[in-house]
Design goal:
This protein is α+β, with helices and mostly antiparallel strands. It has 8 helices and 15 strands. The two termini are 86 Å apart.
Length: 365
């Protein structure tokens, strides 16, 4: 589809843009033409058509017509709607009465600098499409004339469209028929009624067609000026592809699940803390009935031997504790060596990494 274009070309330059040479060309209603960067249906544009000749010998004319076909059989008192037929599908122009009767003698060429297409999504993004060397694009078109109730004759045209080229299918599924060389423009403009035009009505596949994103202010037909074709950077937004959203959601759920697993593991590691285990085993040991010898020995995960309560358990615990303190005191000779050696900084362990000691266990007991 082609519903917006940039047309600021001068009417005098239209024949050259259409590869027309050594031909007498006249201009018709050139004063109605208003150049613009955001031209929409209902506007006057310069159109190159064949001229029947006449006394002055013109063979072609640059005729300013309104964009949006109004068939000649439209009722005179009917209000014209230029948005109804501003495009004609190449696949059906030979079947529909509005277009079929125009193919033999009412073919024409429309010249623009570029056109716009919108990428569908949560927010429609316009793109400006043009030739990379800046030369004008020439579209295949059909025109007709209609007389209204006041007797005024109105000339209108429609742009022929086809499937999008492989390069811009991601943007839109339709594009105007672009006649990119002198042979194709000559055949469409001057070919006989018996000519097979199907070979011309194909997507433009050459690599010299380029595009870039422009401001969303283009969404309004009233917005006009050089800012219409100014390239803008696109923000990184979430794609509207449902498959992409699905996997993105799965990734988020996976992160939540991982976070949940980490929290659970943290709780488990707290429960499995050696200091807590020693305390729990000590409490469990207190509930165990003494054996015939008055003692019961249980081996913990940290290889700490705990003694069950008995008649002499307190004495044994005190004796072991005093021996532990004596072993923990630094010797005098070693202290002297330490004072002469720089202290090496040790890595401070977090609370989860600290291990229970015998001293902490006996202090709590």
């Amino acid at each position: 589809m082609c519903g917006r274009c940039r047309c600021s070309i001068r009417p005098d330059d239209v024949p050259r843009a259409c590869h027309l040479r050594n031909t007498s060309v006249r201009q018709v209603d050139a004063d109605r033409y208003r150049p613009g960067y955001n031209v929409s249906p209902g506007s006057y544009l310069p159109v190159l058509r064949r001229e029947s000749g006449g006394d002055e010998g013109y063979t072609a004319a640059v005729h300013c017509m309104k964009w949006g076909l109004i068939p000649s059989f439209t009722k005179k008192d009917e209000k014209p709607d230029h948005y109804r037929m501003f495009n004609a599908r190449s696949e059906s122009i030979g079947e529909k009465a509005s277009f079929r009767r125009l193919i033999p003698k009412n073919r024409c060429l429309v010249t623009v600098e570029g056109f716009y297409e919108w990428k569908k999504g949560p927010k429609k993004q316009p793109y400006y499409i043009h030739f990379d060397d800046g030369r004008p694009l020439v579209f295949a078109a059909l025109y007709d004339s209609w007389k209204n109730s006041e007797g005024e004759i109105l000339y209108t045209f429609t742009i022929v469209t086809t499937d999008s080229s492989s390069a811009i299918k991601w943007l839109h599924d339709r594009m105007p028929v672009i006649l990119g060389d002198e042979l194709s423009t000559d055949v469409w403009l001057n070919g006989s009624s018996d000519t097979k035009f199907s070979s011309l009505l194909k997507p433009y596949e050459k690599e010299d067609l380029t595009w870039y994103p422009v401001t969303t202010a283009m969404n309004k037909a009233s917005f006009d000026g050089p800012e219409c074709i100014k390239e803008i950077p696109l923000k990184a937004e979430e794609q509207s592809n449902p498959i992409t959203n699905f996997f993105s959601k799965k990734g988020t759920d996976g992160n939540k699940q991982s976070s949940k697993t980490i929290k659970t593991s943290t709780k488990d590691s707290t429960k499995n803390d050696p200091q807590s285990d020693v305390k729990e085993e000590a409490e469990a040991q207190a509930n165990v009935e003494p054996s015939c010898s008055g003692r019961t020995v249980t081996e913990t995960r940290s290889d700490v031997s705990t003694i069950s309560p008995g008649s002499d358990s307190k004495v044994d615990l005190k004796r072991d504790y005093e021996k532990f303190l004596d072993d923990s005191k630094p010797r005098t000779a070693e202290l002297g060596k330490v004072s002469q050696t720089p202290v090496k900084k040790s890595k401070v362990k977090s609370g989860a990494e600290k291990q229970a000691t015998l001293r902490s266990y006996f202090t709590k007991s």
